[in-house]
């Protein structure tokens, strides 16, 4: 059924463009039914999963690699699946309203539904490789979505940036998962957890940890990989609401939570997660305070939330994991509502700049109300779910005495209070601006999502017993032990956590009212540290590009002579190194005696011919010098008892010399090339002599080996008896190895065709080719 | 019957080429012949593969001279797989050529020479004789040279000269290597060589000869530092020629390396396979950097051909059954994707008015959304996006590499993969997303109906294959697994070629020994 849900969403994606053409005004409502029904099905699974019975499903895929499409629905997966399908349904409805009349609305639905399917697969996959497949699919669909406004160069840049950062994480994930599978001997997450194999003690544990953390941190935009997320806000608002707050960026968090039972709990795990999470939370908070674009503000608060979630997994105590589950739900609900409502503000008033917004309450009361509720949840005020989550966090961190973490959380939450106030107070209750003049309330498609999500924030806050079971099951899944009972309340009594909440609120309000000095000091800090990750990214890319250009133009510079020099150098190096490292040189038992006089003369002639060719000043000279060498070789064959080979060689030499001379008479004289420099000449002669020497050494060693005569004997014996030919060479050519000759004939025929075609092309043009 | 089928991959294209030459004055007849021949080759390839898988390795002794005295053709799982995939590429490219090739090239004998090229490619795949392999390489060299220079433009001739100059060096090295190996073993039959090479007393000289083979085949396969001919030539000829070059030519070199370094040269694998490993690593990086430096679609794809040769050779260099399976799987994937990419680039060039420079591209998302979908398949597969074929190849290689603790190579592979993702993202942005600098030269709809079909159909076919391998990888994985197994345990191959007793001294010789030579 999980696979069915995924396939149904893919199907919906596939028909979306057509459906949109047929029903332009209704298609988003129809399409939303698919994720909505999936969400319903998942909701029905809650009681069973809470009772501790995960839903399992397996479909065979690539058994010879041990890869299967296997799914497993426990508390963590179920919570994510509900968020993905539930928020997804409203995002689809929302984008229908947001993109009304856009020529590529159908295509947008195609991408966002594909993304939804990938995300759903990611959080339910049990098989390691399937998990990776879905993970990469979210990166690709997100690339398409970020670049949706594709004629805008900035969108394209942001899309490629996100693809590269998350793609790099994907590579790390692949290696990490394969290492995990190999180390444990199992290829599903549940089997690894159940096998009790202690991966933490494995020799490859550090490598696995680094790779998987790299994957999670890039996907979930943890410092220092956070810079792509704010840029990804170039995407249309529904994308930001869905991918970059509620779902995709939480994939990294999901991965960490999922791996916690098998890899978590070690010192490096603790330090890596708390450090990255803490820094990200602080950084996100500070940047949120500094920003003035509604979407940018929300993007940075998302960073803060991701940081807190990672921090909580890093702490890893029972209470922290419960807080993790609570904050995950609370954040997804309020952030989804805020993003969509911010889009509604943009849609209604035409701007997202804080400075241009004010007095919208009278024009957009519904949007205002939903923003207010969601912002209260973000600020962590009762009776909203955000309050419960924050209390849980404070309670556990305080009890465990992580004082640095507590301070970080306090600061971050105070910043959230201030940001929440910024989001609501000025745009809605501030003095009316020009933009407010023509503002209008959005339609039902744009308001349905914020309404439901904000409503749920309130409902779950008041009635915490409702999601309590699922949150408990989530925490159990992240902890990976036996289920623990959970009893959550909105009102905890007068606890230290409540005191901390009060402190947060006070600090937050102080921040809000003293915002401009704070902003200034933040700007100063930024100027001081000069950390501009975006520019660093550009530098990195242009460095890479420059390296690529330099290496490529150095290697492939278009000069044949240089290519050949590289190649001959390669040959010399490889053969020379082999001879040096492997040895094997033997001197064959050749001795010179009186009978070899003629041979010596011929050898000298060959050398002379070669030297003449090198020294030659004209083509004719070179051809004739080479002919001397060739003829000497032919004579050598004649002398050493291979008359047929010798005669053939003589004929070839004669013909080729004549033809070359004839052709050259027709060719225009080329101006003499520039004299090569001395080092170049030296280099070339070293190459030539080196290769000649190396080949000679090998040849001598080969000559020293006994020659196996089986083939020659066989040819000699059978040539007349079986092949009816007296000339053995002829029989070899036309019978024993006649198939070679067939190939060679083909070569000759083809060469003829080529010459013919070239000549004709030349004549057809009536001039120079 | 099986014997004919084993020789069919050579005979069918050769016959087709001969008939095309007979019908020299009638290009229409040649078109029909080319298409028919290509279809017949696909059928023969399919039949051969299924027979090899069901009945084991197929062997035919040409001229009925027993191995190792005559020339043996052998179809083992790797050969048969390569023949089938080459035949499918041949068919797709022949189809595309019908819609794309210009009259000058057609009258210059494009169809005939193309079939000769296919003869050479298939011959190299099925031959079991080292010198015969050299002959098929020559057939490939001369036919590719003619195909390169057909049309006779100045830049084509320039490229063809570079191509032929560098490849002549490779040919000379190959001939030298074959001769030296014959000198120490006295045989050319590859199965026979696999027995005799370990018996040579002077093993270091075998290592030197093996390195000479690495050089010769490495040049054909475009490995660093021997790849220069490839980026210099692949952007000049007609689209059909580019596509078949990119798909098949270099892979024949890789195939030859795989054959020779699993069957014959396994004695000094620490040295020879180490060299292959280093060359593979550098090739990957240099290739992908080259593709990033290019500002032109065709050039970028040419460099990508180089880059992924490195991946396959990495599999060969690791040489476990899984790694060899990975290399085989990757090769099949890569052949399909590279052919597809070049065919697609040809179509894009047509739409952009004769240039694939990034500056001239753009706007496809608006003007041709369906084409974008088609182009996304090979692009995504190139980048290794799951669940397309490239992903499985990468997964296999990563697993094979990590299992044998080749961490650096796996790292290089993944970095190359990431840089390829960058390239794909960039190409997508330039070709599909960006608004074109000037209005497109033509829309697909302005092509005639039949022509559109001929240009699109191969793209569609190849993309479908890529997607179906991606979604249902099991069949090919299984097949690749058999390839990997048969390459690590070569006894079945040797036995099939030399008969039940793998002895280099057949009884026939003993019987004739007593008779005197006339």
Automatic annotation (TrEMBL), chain B:
Any one GO CC term of the record: plasma membrane
Xref: Pfam families: Proton_antipo_M
GO biological process: ATP synthesis coupled electron transport
Topology of this chain in the membrane: Multi-pass membrane protein
NADH:quinone oxidoreductase/Mrp antiporter transmembrane domain ranges (all copies): 128-420
Keyword Electron transport: no
Family annotation (InterPro entries): CPA3_Na-H_Antiporter_D (IPR050586), NADH_UbQ_OxRdtase (IPR003918), ND/Mrp_TM (IPR001750)
GO molecular function annotation: NADH dehydrogenase (ubiquinone) activity
Keywords annotated in UniProt: Cell membrane, Membrane, Transmembrane, Transmembrane helix
Main location: membrane
Organism listed in the record: Niveispirillum lacus
Name of the protein: Na+/H+ antiporter subunit D
């Amino acid at each position: 059924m999980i696979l069915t849900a995924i396939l149904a969403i893919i199907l919906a994606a596939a028909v979306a463009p057509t459906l949109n053409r047929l029903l332009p005004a209704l298609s988003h409502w129809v399409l939303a039914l698919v994720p909505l029904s999936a969400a319903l099905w998942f909701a029905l699974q809650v009681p069973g999963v809470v009772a501790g019975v995960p839903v399992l499903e397996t479909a065979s895929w690539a058994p010879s690699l041990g890869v299967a499409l296997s799914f497993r629905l426990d508390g963590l997966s179920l919570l994510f699946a509900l968020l993905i399908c539930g928020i997804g349904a409203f995002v689809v409805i929302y984008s229908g309203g947001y993109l009304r009349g856009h020529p590529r609305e159908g295509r947008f639905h195609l991408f966002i539904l594909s993304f939804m399917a990938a995300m759903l697969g990611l959080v339910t996959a049990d098989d390691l490789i399937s998990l990776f497949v879905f993970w990469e699919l979210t990166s690709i669909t997100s690339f398409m979505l970020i670049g949706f406004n594709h004629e805008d160069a900035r969108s394209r840049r942001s899309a490629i940036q996100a693809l590269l950062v998350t793609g790099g994480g994907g590579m790390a994930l692949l290696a990490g998962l394969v290492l995990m599978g190999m180390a444990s001997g199992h290829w599903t997450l549940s089997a690894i957890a159940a096998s009790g194999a202690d991966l933490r003690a494995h020799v490859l544990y550090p490598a696995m940890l680094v790779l998987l953390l790299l994957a999670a941190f890039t996907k979930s935009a943890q410092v220092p990989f956070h810079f792509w997320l704010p840029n990804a806000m170039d995407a249309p608002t529904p994308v930001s609401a869905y991918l970059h707050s509620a779902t995709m960026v939480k994939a990294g968090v999901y991965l960490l939570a999922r791996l916690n039972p098998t890899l978590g709990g070690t010192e490096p795990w603790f330090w890596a997660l708390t450090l990255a999470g803490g820094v990200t939370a602080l950084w996100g908070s500070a940047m949120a305070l500094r920003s003035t674009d509604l979407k940018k503000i929300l993007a940075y608060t998302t960073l803060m939330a991701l940081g807190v979630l990672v921090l909580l997994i890093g702490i890893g105590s029972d209470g922290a994991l419960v807080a993790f589950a609570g904050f995950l739900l609370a954040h997804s609900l309020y952030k989804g509502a805020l993003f969509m409502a911010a889009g509604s503000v943009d849609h209604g008033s035409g701007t997202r700049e804080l400075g241009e917004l004010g007095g919208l309450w009278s024009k957009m009361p519904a949007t205002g109300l939903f923003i207010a509720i969601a912002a209260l949840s973000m600020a962590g005020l009762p009776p909203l779910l955000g309050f419960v989550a924050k209390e849980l966090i404070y309670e556990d961190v305080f009890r465990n005495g992580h004082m640095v973490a507590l301070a970080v959380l306090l600061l971050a939450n105070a910043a959230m209070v201030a940001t929440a106030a910024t989001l609501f107070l000025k745009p809605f209750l501030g003095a009316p601006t020009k933009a407010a003049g023509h503002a209008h309330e959005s339609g039902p498609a744009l308001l349905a999502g914020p309404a439901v999500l904000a409503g749920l924030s309130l409902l779950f806050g008041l009635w915490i017993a409702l999601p309590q079971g699922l949150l408990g099951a989530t925490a159990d899944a992240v902890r990976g032990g036996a289920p623990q009972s959970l009893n959550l309340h909105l009102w905890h009594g007068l606890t230290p956590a409540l005191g901390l909440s009060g402190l947060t609120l006070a600090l937050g309000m102080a921040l809000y009212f003293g915002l401009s000095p704070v902003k200034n000091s933040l700007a100063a800090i930024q100027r001081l540290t000069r950390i501009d990750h975006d520019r660093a990214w550009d530098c990195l890319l242009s460095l890479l590009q420059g390296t690529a250009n330099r290496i490529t133009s150095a290697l492939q510079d278009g000069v044949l002579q240089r290519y050949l020099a590289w190649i001959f150098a390669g040959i010399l190096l490889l053969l020379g190194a082999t001879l040096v490292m492997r040895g094997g040189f033997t001197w064959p038992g050749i001795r010179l005696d009186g009978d070899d006089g003629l041979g010596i003369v011929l050898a000298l002639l060959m050398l002379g011919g070669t030297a003449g060719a090198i020294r030659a000043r004209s083509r004719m000279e070179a051809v004739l010098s080479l002919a001397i060498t060739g003829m000497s070789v032919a004579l050598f064959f004649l002398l050493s008892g291979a008359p047929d080979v010798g005669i053939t060689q003589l004929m070839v030499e004669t013909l080729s010399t004549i033809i070359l001379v004839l052709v050259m008479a027709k060719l225009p004289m080329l101006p003499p090339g520039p004299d090569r420099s001395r080092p170049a000449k030296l280099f070339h002669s070293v190459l030539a002599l080196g290769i000649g020497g190396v080949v000679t050494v090998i040849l001598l060693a080969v000559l020293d080996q006994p020659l196996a005569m089986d083939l020659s004997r066989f040819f000699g014996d059978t040539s007349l008896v079986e092949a009816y030919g007296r000339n053995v060479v002829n029989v070899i050519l036309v019978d024993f190895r006649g198939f070679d000759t067939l190939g060679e004939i083909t070569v000759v025929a083809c060469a003829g065709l080529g010459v013919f075609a070239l000549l004709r092309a030349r004549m057809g043009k009536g001039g120079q080719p | 019957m099986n014997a004919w089928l084993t020789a069919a991959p050579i005979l069918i294209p050769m016959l087709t080429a001969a008939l095309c030459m007979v019908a020299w004055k009638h290009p229409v007849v040649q078109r029909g012949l080319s298409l028919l021949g290509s279809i017949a080759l696909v059928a023969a390839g399919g039949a051969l593969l299924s027979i090899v898988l069901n009945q084991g390795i197929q062997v035919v002794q040409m001229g009925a001279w027993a191995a190792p005295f005559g020339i043996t053709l052998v179809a083992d799982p790797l050969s048969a797989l390569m023949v089938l995939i080459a035949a499918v590429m041949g068919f797709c490219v022949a189809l595309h050529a019908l819609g794309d090739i210009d009259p000058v090239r057609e009258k210059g004998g494009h169809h005939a020479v193309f079939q000769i090229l296919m003869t050479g490619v298939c011959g190299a795949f099925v031959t079991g004789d080292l010198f015969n392999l050299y002959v098929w390489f020559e057939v490939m060299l001369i036919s590719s040279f003619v195909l390169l220079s057909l049309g006779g433009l100045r830049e084509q001739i320039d490229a063809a000269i570079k191509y032929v100059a560098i490849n002549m060096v490779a040919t000379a090295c190959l001939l030298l290597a074959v001769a030296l190996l014959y000198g120490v073993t006295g045989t050319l039959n590859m199965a026979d060589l696999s027995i005799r090479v370990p018996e040579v007393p002077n093993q270091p000289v075998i290592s030197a000869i093996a390195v000479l083979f690495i050089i010769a085949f490495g040049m054909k396969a475009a490995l660093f530092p021997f790849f220069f001919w490839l980026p210099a030539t692949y952007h000049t000829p007609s689209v059909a020629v580019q596509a078949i070059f990119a798909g098949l030519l270099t892979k024949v070199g890789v195939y030859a390396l795989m054959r020779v370094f699993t069957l014959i040269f396994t004695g000094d694998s620490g040295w020879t396979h180490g060299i292959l490993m280093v060359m593979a690593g550098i090739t990957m990086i240099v290739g992908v950097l080259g593709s990033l430096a290019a500002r032109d679609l065709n050039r970028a794809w040419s460099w990508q051909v180089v880059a992924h040769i490195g991946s396959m050779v990495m599999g060969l260099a690791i040489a476990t059954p899984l790694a060899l399976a990975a290399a085989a799987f990757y090769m099949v994937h890569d052949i399909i994707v590279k052919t597809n990419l070049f065919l697609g680039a040809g179509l894009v060039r047509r739409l952009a008015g004769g240039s694939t420079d990034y500056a001239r591209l753009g706007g496809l998302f608006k003007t041709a959304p369906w084409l974008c979908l088609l182009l996304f398949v090979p692009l995504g597969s190139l980048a290794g996006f799951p669940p397309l074929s490239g992903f499985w190849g990468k997964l296999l290689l990563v697993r094979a590499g990590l299992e044998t603790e080749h961490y650096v190579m796996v790292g290089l592979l993944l970095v190359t993969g990431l840089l390829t993702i960058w390239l794909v993202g960039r190409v997508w942005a330039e070709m599909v997303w960006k608004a074109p600098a000037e209005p497109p030269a033509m829309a697909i709809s302005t092509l005639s109906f039949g022509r559109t079909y001929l240009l699109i159909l191969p793209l569609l076919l190849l993309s479908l294959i890529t997607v179906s391998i991606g979604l249902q990888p099991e069949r090919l994985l299984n097949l690749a697994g058999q390839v990997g197994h048969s390459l690590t345990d070569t006894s079945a191959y040797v036995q099939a070629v030399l008969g039940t007793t793998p002895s280099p001294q057949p009884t026939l010789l003993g019987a004739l020994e007593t008779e005197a030579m006339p």
